[in-house]
Amino acid sequence: MSQQAVPVVGLTGGMGAGKSTALEILRRRGAAVLSTDAVVHELIESDPVRQALVARFGEEIAPGGVVDRAAVATRAFANDDGRAWLEGLLWPLVGERVAEWVEQVRRRTPPPRAAVIEVPLLFESGITDGYDATLAVVAGEPLRRQRAAARGHALAEERSSRQLPQDEKARRATFVVRNDGTEEDLERELSAVLDKLGP
Questions:
Q1: What is the pTM of this model?
Q2: Measured in whole angstroms, how far is the alpha carbon of residue 80 from the centre of its chain?
Q3: Per-residue b/e over 1-32, b at no fewer than 16 CB within 10 Å?
Q4: Model pLDDT, residue 44
Q5: I need a surface site. Which of 140, 167, 190, 191 has the fewest CB within 10 A?
Q6: Confidence of residue 154 (pLDDT cuts 50, 70, 90)
Q7: Cβ(43)–Cβ(93) under 8 Å?
Q8: What value does the mean pLDDT take over residues 109-134?
Q9: Which positions ≥6 away from 147 have C-beta within 8 Å?
Q10: CA distances, 157 to each of 71, 94, 101, 187 (Å)
């Protein structure tokens, strides 16, 4: 099997739609998975990024040398300049990590069914070139609100973080799965997507 045989899929969706659950199901069904949120958390702990954040936002965002992500978000999202600066710092680094990971995945024997990368701001970032397909997880607004609240978030934060409405994400995606039912329902839908992606 050639190195190109593993389809690379970008997974996205609105807050509370169930992206993490979908990612875990895809992993169980034989896909290699990566969360860019996890990559960002890793990068923020790294010395170069921490130093850049402190230089921009001040020592108080890293008490005891440990970056307080909530404090960074508060500063960065207070205005467009801060957000643009943070995206300019992190997105290229995330892109490098993702590219390295995809190369490693393509060398695995046997190859996984797909390489799935969870990217909350997939369409917003404009970085969709490296994907063979995109997958949007969607759910009804009341359910998303309930799930987001259970994690201490509000759907209003989705708009403030510049996320596209979920309908728009669904319109742009190659595949759309609904996550309004049980986990088994979601697993069936995701299995069907994996079947469409290849052997």
A1: 0.87
A2: 21
A3: eeeeebbbbbbbbbbbbbbebbbebbeebebb
A4: 92
A5: 167
A6: low
A7: yes
A8: 90
A9: 15, 16, 17, 18, 139
A10: 15, 22, 30, 28
Q: What residues pair up with 10 in beta bridges, in sequence order?
A: 117, 134
Q: Name the maximum alpha-carbon separation found in the chain.
A: 52
Cis peptide leading into residue 165 (ω within 30°): no
Please tell me which residue, 93 or 3, carries the higher pLDDT value: 93
Dihedral pair phi/psi, residue 137, rounded to 5°: -100, 125
What the block records as the tokens of 142 is 């009341």
Q: What is the mean pLDDT of the chain?
A: 88
Q: Which of 177, 165, 101, 102 is nearest to 135 (CA)?
A: 177
Euclidean distance between the first and the last CA atom of the chain, given in angstroms as a whole number: 11
